[in-house]
Amino acid sequence: MPVPPVVAAYRGEPLERVPVWFMRQAGRSLPEYRALRRGRSFAEVVRTPELAAEVTLQPVRRLGVDAAILFSDIVTPVQAVLEGIHIRPDRGPVVDQPVRTKDDLARLRPLDPATDLPYVLETVRLVRQALPPEVALIGFAGAPFTVASYLVEGGKSSDYRQTKALMHAEPDVWDDLLDRLAGMALATLAAQVEAGAQAVQLFDSWVGTLAEDDYRRFVLPASRRVLEGLADLDVPRVHFGVGAGHLLEAMAEAGADVVGVDWRIPLDQARERLGPGVAVQGNLDPTTLFAPPEVLDDRVRRMLAANGGRPGYVANLGWGVLPDTDPDALRRVVDLVHGSSP
Ligand code: 1CP
């Protein structure tokens, strides 16, 4: 099979045009997603491979993006081993009984993707069969810190006080928790690759809340276990966090081939800091999609200019597509990136 442009770009190979996809491209912004979700829960879609595959493919058809990202969630693997984790509309994951003590850890047994997540692996196979060869399928998992934050807090947090309290008061329990979550992330990503995913992204969305020294002490070893554990599989590894500009180098050191950059750091600065050996992905502010077309066009051109034609670049947003985004604005970005690159 030929190497899809997204994979080639992740590997730093020079290309005629810049490839593009969007974090959270499947889901709420597309009318065909909302139609499919009518009367069905998020969990039902994820656990029905034909439906999850259809949702994964929808943005490829409508937007002309160069990659599909598996439709699932960062808590899907841990949901398979732990009762009482739900995805609530407009709130995201909530956990009935937070994980905060040594005894709680016993509830987190290792994950066996083939028996615990057969529907995810079947979705990967169905999507790969349906995709044209030039469109890459990206697998993903939540990074240990970000998944831990949901388990410890019981849901999304604004200050991560319980998470940081555990980290500082009981570092042994913390390390054990992150190690177990690293094992799950590694197992699920390796299984997704075996089923047909051609690149993987480790989402550490909330890690920007940590100072670099705490990141290096309390998080980097677990994320490294995930990323280094995939080294032999020969797929590009993307590592992304929101508001994590101060952690770019450390997140690359954890074993990433590609670092996802949000809009707070100009791409040229990110590239200079990371050096030519690391590819980058990003970094259009997702709210730009609500701006007038001429402003949007200007921001896209400025983003491409900041990369400056360097190889090892995949255009994307600096974070996920917001729910009310007009799909035509997303399509406009794809066409502009394809037409005006490099
Ligand atoms: O394109 C896609 O939608 C791909 C599938 C996908 C991915 C990659 C979903 C479906 N979720 C994710 C990752 C994810 N989930 C992250 C990391 C990426 C990011 O930061 O955006 C995080 C933090 C979550 C947790 C989560 N799941 C939230 C909270 C986000 C927040 O800002 O507080 C929410 C709302 C969910 C539920 C969810 N997961 C996915 C969708 C489409 C939804 C919305 C709920 C629904 O449609 O019912």
Structure class: alpha/beta
| Number of structurally distinct domains | 1
CATH domain topology: TIM Barrel
Radius of gyration, in Å, reads 19 Å
Strand order in space, largest sheet: 1-4-5-6-7-8-9
- Which CATH first-tier class would you pick? Alpha Beta
Parts with pLDDT < 50 across at least 5 consecutive residues: none
Helix tally?
17
Shape: globular
Summarize the amount of helix as a percent range: 40-55%
Task: Give descriptors for this structure.
12% strand, 48% helix, TIM Barrel, 342 residues, single chain, seven-stranded parallel sheet, alpha/beta, globular, 17 helices, binds coproporphyrinogen I
Brief overview:
With about 350 residues, the protein is α/β, with parallel strands linked by helices. The chain has 17 helices and nine strands.
Written overview of the protein:
The chain is α/β, with parallel strands linked by helices and 342 residues long. It has a single domain (5-338), classed as TIM Barrel (Alpha-Beta Barrel), CATH 3.20.20.210. Helix content is 48%, strand content 12%. It is built from 17 helices and 9 strands. The chain has helices at 5-10, 31-37, 42-46, 49-63, 76-81, 102-105, 113-116, 118-130, 144-153, 161-169, 171-195, 212-218, 220-229, 248-253, 267-274, 293-307, 327-340; strands spanning 67-69, 85-88, 92-95, 136-142, 199-203, 237-240, 258-261, 279-284, 313-317. It has a 7-stranded parallel sheet with strand order 1-4-5-6-7-8-9. Strands 2-3 form a two-stranded antiparallel ribbon. Helix 4 (49-63) runs parallel beside helix 8 (118-130) and helix 11 (171-195) packs parallel to helix 13. The protein starts with a helix and ends with a helix. The model has no long low-confidence stretch (mean pLDDT 97). Residues 24-28, 42, 69, 71-74, 87, 89, 92-93, 140, 156, 203, 205, 320 line the site of coproporphyrinogen I.
